[in-house]
Write a structure and sequence with these properties.
Length: 116
């Protein structure tokens, strides 16, 4: 799930949205059927294009709480726009390389609307 913030109690993304612009907070979370049981996972992001997909972020190891069913992160959309540019993306979370994603979701990074 993508949203504008993480809930302080549950840790899940709230104020659901899939479109983010410069200056927006970018929050995402996944609720697992059971605690992860591991302190890290792999996070991959691909850019979705008309003729296929390209890697925006190769699978990268990130730390998580092994005892929680919720995996959640929050960053600024401006940082993602600077790194990857505007477009449509898919985020994939894996526990082991070469396995099916434990969670995935699609989002859009959009240019800021013109002022005035």
């Amino acid at each position: 799930m993508f949203g504008a913030a993480l809930d302080e109690v549950s840790g899940v993304a709230v104020s659901p949205t899939t479109i983010f612009r410069a200056g927006d907070p970018f929050a995402y979370s996944a609720r697992l059927p059971a605690a992860a049981g591991t302190s890290s996972m792999l996070l991959e992001v691909v850019r979705l294009e008309a003729d296929g997909q390209t890697t925006a972020q190769a699978p990268r190891e990130v730390g998580i709480d092994a005892t929680s069913r919720v995996i959640a992160f929050s960053v600024f959309a401006s940082d993602l726009l600077a790194a990857w540019g505007p477009g449509n993306y898919e985020m994939r979370m894996y526990f082991e390389p070469g396995t099916d994603p434990a969670a995935l979701g699609r989002f859009t990074l959009a240019e800021a609307p013109a002022s005035g």
